[in-house]
Amino acid sequence: MTFSFTATVLGSPRIGPNRELKKAVESYWAGRLDAEALDALARDLRRQTWTSLRDAGLDSVPVNTFSYYDHVLDTAAMLGALPDRVAGIESDLDRYFAAARGNDTVAPLEMTKWFDTNYHYLVPEISPTTTFALDPSKVLRELEEARALDIPARPVVVGPVTFLLLSKAVGSDAPLLDRLDELVPLYADLLGRLADAGADWVQIDEPALVADRTPEEIAAAKRAYDRLSALESRPAILLASYFGSLGDALPAIASTGVEGIAIDLVAGSDTLATVPDLTRKHVVAGVVDGRNIWRTDLDAALASLGTLLGSTGSLAVSTSCSLLHVPYTLDAETGLDKALRSWLAFGTEKVREVVTLGTALTSGRESVEDEFALARAAASTRSTDRRLHDATVRARLDALTASDPGRSPAAERREAQSALSLPVLPTTTIGSYPQTTQIRVARAARRKGEIDESEYLNRMRAEVADVVALQEKLDLDVLVHGEPERNDMVQYFAEQLDGFFATDNGWVQSYGSRCVRPPILYGDVRRSNPMTVEWITYAQSLTQRPVKGMLTGPVTILAWSFVRDDQPLADSANQVALAIRDETVDLQGAGIRIVQVDEPALRELLPLRAADQPAYLDWSVGAFRLATSGVSDSTQIHTHLCYSEFGEVIEAIARLDADVTSIEAARSHMEVLDDLNAVGFDLGVGPGVYDIHSPRVPGVEEIAASLREALKAVPVERLWVNPDCGLKTRGPAEVEASLRNLVDAAKLVRAEL
Ligand code: GLN
Ligand code: ZN
């Protein structure tokens, strides 16, 4: 067989250690940087990434994992599958960015979550007229650059099965996988070109094989890899799976002629010993978690590598998936205490773990015994640290989960809430108002120390007062404070809760140039002080109308954080729920009569395999209910969800039992209401009547038409009127105009009743 490497990663972060790529790409969009300068910066970042991976000791380095925006979009470009509507744009780069972000005349591709991560990819659109054609220029160029630097380069591409399964069919209902035969020759061509360019190995990513797949889909994948592996001139193929188990797809893939298979041993639980064909394969064992930030238990990882030795042809150590999902390095963090730091591993530290394990595997552990000792010491302090074992929190949670009767039946609550005296078709918004220039200026000034905390708070209070005054002027029924004080709906709470650490520099790519800093949930969660009460009561003091308290729910807080791996996610969720519950009770005590607990991420954490979904939905619904059942019947609980096609979670939404659910619907023409009816949902619902993702101002008649449509599915007593998400990304003028039309539309339809 071709030389088999021993230590690698499946991919690396690409935004730059200091978000250089983000800044450069945004400057290019703004016309402040030209294409040549952007290209030079990108090349430099790639060089830094590869050389540091090689110098750290990896003997196979992934290339072509760089991207200006998204690797699925790169794949679409490589396969000639960008949408027709951008075809007229001459520059390759601008065509690519137009597909990603749209421009004045073309709409962008849709964006959606990359499996169960927080990374979003662009969904390629494939129509019957799409003619695939190979453009290997990007991958060939990056391979050539890397080889010129003497990097042991392994080009990485998204595989044809995953590409088709993640794409959206337009203009036809036929399954896209039917088009696999059109793609296989292109990949064959690509493999030949890569071999000619000197690649020994190619990594073909097929993460779609870790989700539930039909026997036909698995058979189609097998056929494709039978054909590709039968080629004469090609690099050795590493078929990479990640984010779960291959299950039935594993023996099928192993029976093809691919030389290597990457298996996720962190998220997955495949038993390799039962797959005889693996004794002829190079197995790339993902034992270092590529998605979370904990230091690896090297003893355990080495032991599990040891058990694989007998059942595989050869073995390499790797991360479980690309390091795209973790920050670059711990070195950039200053605020970590010594213990917490010792428990963590970001990108650079994970590469080191891979190398340590590779060394231990190939030449014995003596030379790396120090690293093992450090990992062991960290595991030991982590398991005994008091912050991870707060007896009071645990006792309280146990008592409550055993005894909490939940809320009264919905009808009783409705009765108790009639004191709110709301009109029919009450109007409201989802929480945030535009993050104005004043807000950003104030935040920056505070960070630089130009203004003190009290001046900052004064300015934020002025924003709240403006937002309340605007809502009164517009005649909305249920008001919000506008969330000016929140940088982010999860980080804001993480910063105030014990058990969370907010990083200084732990950026990860969310999509395109957008990066997020997920907080680290490392300990038992405790709320030492009220987190939102002052803001909400201040807003309430300015108006007679009810102001909604605004909280983020436990599932969303977990979904957008790095979470503990030393206890079930359900336990962490309940701890967060307890803190949120305390906040709802305090809000109620302060005279707030409506509290919204947002769960936009409820669907995101849904396990990829159907068999795992019911258990997830049970604990996630349970955590939400724990968070919202501490208040009395007269306090109205709202929730907000950010998507309109729920599939598996629709029943769970009903089980949340929130008095009012606002939900994205504008883009799916109110279909969500039928879905909710189908599961017996009979609570308040506010299907978003206009799409906040676009700057367009919806007309009164248009909104009224949506409401009339909604009234066909929902009795008038249950229907609310609201936009489909928060307004923080919009401009003040369009928000005012849109909300004015929203209120007018509600009045118009009320008059028709
Ligand atoms: N209350 C939040 C806001 O309005 C909800 C955001 C969201 O749904 N992602 O911004
Ligand atoms: Zn939303």
UniProtKB/TrEMBL annotation:
Which residues of this UniProt protein bind Zn(2+)? H640, C642, E664, C725
Q: EC number(s)?
A: 2.1.1.14
| Domain of life of the native organism | Bacteria
Return the annotated region ranges for Disordered: 399-419
What protein does this entry describe? Answer: 5-methyltetrahydropteroyltriglutamate--homocysteine methyltransferase
Co-factor binding comment: Binds 2 Zn(2+) ions per subunit. Binds 1 zinc ion per subunit.
Which PANTHER family does its entry note?
5-METHYLTETRAHYDROPTEROYLTRIGLUTAMATE--HOMOCYSTEINE METHYLTRANSFERASE
Residues that, per the record, bind 5-methyltetrahydropteroyltri-L-glutamate: R19, E20, L21, K22, K113, N118, R514, C515, W560, E604
Which residues does the entry assign to the active site, renumbered to this chain?
H693 (proton donor)
Binding residues for Zn(2+) 1, per the UniProt record?
H640, C642, E664, C725
Which species is this UniProt entry from?
A: Rhodococcus opacus (Nocardia opaca)
Q: Name one GO molecular function term.
A: 5-methyltetrahydropteroyltriglutamate-homocysteine S-methyltransferase activity
